Amino acid sequence: MDFENFLYDLKGKLKRPLPGQEAQMVMAPIEIDQSRFNLAAQNDAKRGAVLILFYPDSGDIHFPLIRRSTYEGVHSGQVALPGGKKEKEDADLFTTAIREASEEIGIDRNKVTIIGSLTEVYIPVSNFKVLPVLGYYTAKPIFIPDYEEVEEIIIANIQMFNNSAKHKITEIQIAENFSIRAPYFDVDHRKIWGATAMMLGELMVVLNS
Fold first, then answer.
1. Taking a C-beta distance cutoff of 8 angstroms, is the pair 159, 180 a contact?
2. Distance (Å, rounded) from C-alpha 101 to C-alpha 90?
C-alpha cells in the first residue's frame, strides 16, 4: 500500500473505538495474570509509553523494534518497542514516547508526526502502564542506537504481522525454575511476545478492520 494511503486509512480507523482488551488477549501469555486487566490494581502503576514509528522504504511500510541490552531486570534482552518511563518534564505520554525513542534509537524528534495511540497495556511484573503511541517519519530514519540500552535495532515490515506463519506459541523461560506458554510473532527468528506482542496484536486488528 502507498504510504500516504496507509496513513490516511489508519487515521480514519483510529477515530473508531479501539478493540482494546479483546484484541490484546489474542497475543497475551496463556497463563495470564488477570490483574493486567484489573483497573483497581493499576492505580499505583508507573506510567510509560512506547513509539510505533512507521516510515516508507522500498515500497513497504516499516517500523523499528529494539532488543534491550542485558541487565539486572525483568525485561533484560527482550525485543520491544522503543520507549520508557514518563519523566516530570514530559508534557504528556506522547512526549515521553518521542523522547525515549530519540534517546534509544537516535531519531530526530522534530521529524516525528503523531497520529494517535492504541490501548494502554498494564505490565504486572514491573508495575508499568504503557501507552503505545503511533507516529511516522516521511522518509527512512537514520538510526543511532544507544548501546547502553539497546543491543540492536530490528527493522520490522508491517506485512510480517499479517503472515499467519509468523504467529507461533512457545515456552518462555521467565526465571530459572519458571516458564510460561505464550504466543509470539516470529520476526527474523526473534520472539516478540508479552506486552509488545499484545500492542502489535491490537494494531493489526485496527489495520485489518
1. no
2. 13
DSSP code of 165? G
Nearest to 143 by CA among 157, 155, 160, 135: 155
> What is the spatial distance between Cα 81 and Cα 93, in angstroms, rounded to a whole number?
15
Q: CA distances (Å), 188 to each of 69, 152, 157, 175, in order?
A: 18, 13, 11, 24
Q: What is the pLDDT along the chain (209 residues), one digit of tens a residue?
A: 799 999 999 999 999 999 999 999 999 987 655 555 665 556 788 999 999 999 999 999 999 999 987 655 554 568 999 999 999 999 999 999 999 999 999 999 999 999 999 999 988 878 889 999 999 999 999 999 998 889 999 999 998 898 888 899 988 776 667 778 889 999 888 899 999 999 999 999 999 99
Burial tier of 57 (Cβ tally within 10 Å: 0-12, 13-18, 19+): middle
